[in-house]
């Protein structure tokens, strides 16, 4: 987007004086202030950055702002994989029932305002400026005691201010990282839901699934309905303990809640995944997942469990309106088909579980002779765990990296690891995505498929490059 410095939201910008909140007048000013703050999404985890994962500053910031996070009902969603899909389907379902839904997600793909929405409507530039100025002024007031607020803390405060200002019926809040110490965890949700847990962000969350689950389950709070779906036994045991520590009972889809799904290969839209759900208030039969992939059945089940609980709490929820709303679900950057002949698919899969699901979903929904994958990821990811799925699924791979992302792995290092895993199978490298796309354009036939994956930042850059090329025609 014009005026937005893609890929430069890292540590404080060397040589630039911090912009005071009073100096934020224009949208460009707002971006400049944010890009001058520590952005833990883009910097590598070190001893200097790990200490930023704490809640005392966020709690103080919310208090200084008059606790906007307490002025609306909320649903909190965590998980290694599936939390974004869950948030988008839930938003569509509730919007279909006529509710005004605030949505806070991360990261963004092309426009930073994607993170703060009412339904599908992005926060306006004017509101963005106004709320950032308010949040930054409050942050300056607590800085002497608590230190400078980060990029994500300011964004989260802005979302709370916007949702309170707009008097949303409900806010869907996606955890940024982990859960227990994520700065979104100052809310007191009506429902707290944890999607699939896997190995990711292990430098921060822990080396084992129970350790990671303990961080994700930190969003379970007294007074909140605590939900998840059936997964590894140790994960469920840990999440159950987290709920019990909050004084609540964990409800597990497939164990404590009636839930099942089936895959039909001859549905009206090709391969369909159909979900059955029966809860305390609502019942759904053979609801088609609006997002591609068998794994979305679990996320849809979680959504139906959430709306069932909200209905039990008194919200007017109609089953058919939920279904109609779900049909309008859109999720940019997740199995997003942007071109045909050759097919070009964008997917922000960035951990082994996501890549495995993507490689399984691709041939089920896209017909191709040869699969060419353009891949780049952060250096702190489980690279071997991710690449083992590319070895068997991809015919050709081009390794690259997102521009300006300090966490990005070097393409040559990715190719070296891939070469070992693939028993000598060759891979190509490109210094940036633009060159990788040019290389893929020369290699791919009309009957092939190109998949750009490994990082939301890579996918976001692909969308920006595509928009720029279309505008230049």
The total number of structural domains is 2
Low-pLDDT segments, ≥5 res: 1-16
With strands numbered from the N-terminus, the spatial order across the biggest sheet is: 4-3-2-5-1-6-7-8
Beta-strand portion reads 15-25%
CATH class of the largest domain: Alpha Beta
Describe this structure in words.
The protein is an alpha/beta fold and 473 residues long. The chain folds into 2 domains: 21-326, UDP-N-acetylmuramoyl-L-alanine:D-glutamate ligase (3-Layer(aba) Sandwich); 336-472, Protein-Tyrosine Phosphatase, Chain A. Helices cover 39% and strands 17% of the residues. It has 16 helices and 17 strands. The chain has an 8-stranded mixed β-sheet, sandwiched between helices. A 6-stranded mixed β-sheet has the order 12-13-17-14-15-16. The chain has a 3-stranded antiparallel β-sheet with strand order 9-10-11, with helices on one face. A hairpin with a 2-residue loop joins strand 3 and strand 4 (121-122). Helix 5 packs across helix 6 and helix 8 runs parallel beside helix 9 (233-245). Mean pLDDT is 90; it is low at 1-16.
């Amino acid at each position: 987007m014009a005026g937005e410095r893609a890929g430069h939201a890292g540590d404080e910008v060397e040589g630039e004086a911090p912009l005071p909140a009073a100096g934020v007048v224009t949208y460009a000013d707002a971006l400049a202030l944010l890009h001058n703050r520590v952005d833990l999404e883009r910097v590598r985890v070190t001893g200097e950055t790990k200490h930023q994962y704490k809640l005392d500053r966020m709690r103080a910031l919310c208090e200084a702002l008059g606790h906007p996070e307490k002025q609306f009902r909320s649903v909190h969603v965590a998980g290694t994989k599936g939390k974004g899909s869950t948030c988008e389907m839930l938003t569509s379902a509730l919007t279909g029932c006529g509710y005004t839904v605030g949505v806070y997600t991360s990261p963004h793909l092309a426009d930073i305002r994607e993170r703060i929405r009412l339904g599908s409507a992005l926060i306006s530039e004017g509101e963005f400026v106004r709320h950032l100025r308010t949040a930054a002024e409050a942050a300056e007031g607590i800085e002497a005691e608590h230190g400078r607020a980060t990029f994500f803390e300011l964004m989260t405060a802005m979302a709370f201010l916007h949702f309170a200002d707009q008097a949303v019926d409900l806010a869907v809040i996606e955890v940024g990282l982990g859960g227990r110490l994520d700065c979104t965890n100052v809310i007191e949700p009506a429902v707290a839901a944890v999607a699939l847990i896997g190995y990711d962000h292990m430098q921060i969350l822990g080396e084992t699934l129970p350790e990671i689950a303990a961080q994700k389950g930190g969003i379970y709070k007294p007074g909140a309905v605590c939900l998840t779906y059936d997964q590894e036994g140790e994960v469920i045991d840990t999440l159950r303990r987290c709920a019990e520590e909050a004084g609540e009972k964990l409800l597990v889809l497939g164990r404590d809640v009636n839930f099942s799904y089936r895959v039909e290969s001859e549905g009206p839209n090709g391969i369909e995944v159909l979900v059955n759900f029966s809860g305390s208030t609502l019942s759904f039969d053979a609801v088609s997942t609006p997002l591609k992939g068998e794994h979305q059945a679990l996320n849809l089940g979680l959504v139906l469990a959430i709306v069932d609980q909200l209905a039990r709490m008194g919200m007017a929820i109609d089953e058919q309106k939920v279904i109609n709303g779900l049909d309008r679900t859109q999720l940019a950057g997740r199995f997003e088909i942007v071109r045909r002949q050759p097919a070009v698919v964008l997917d922000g899969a960035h951990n082994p579980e996501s890549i495995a699901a993507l490689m399984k979903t691709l041939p089920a929904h896209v017909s191709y002779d040869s699969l060419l994958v353009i891949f780049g990821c952060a250096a702190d990811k489980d690279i071997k765990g991710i690449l083992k799925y590319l070895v068997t699924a991809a015919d050709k791979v081009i390794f690259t990296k997102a521009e300006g992302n300090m966490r990005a792995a070097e393409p040559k290092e990715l190719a070296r690891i891939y070469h070992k895993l693939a028993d000598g199978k060759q891979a190509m490298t490109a210094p940036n995505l633009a060159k990788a796309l040019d290389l893929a354009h020369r290699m791919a036939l009309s009957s092939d498929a190109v998949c750009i994956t490994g990082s939301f930042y890579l996918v976001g850059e692909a969308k920006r490059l595509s928009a720029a090329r279309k505008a230049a025609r």
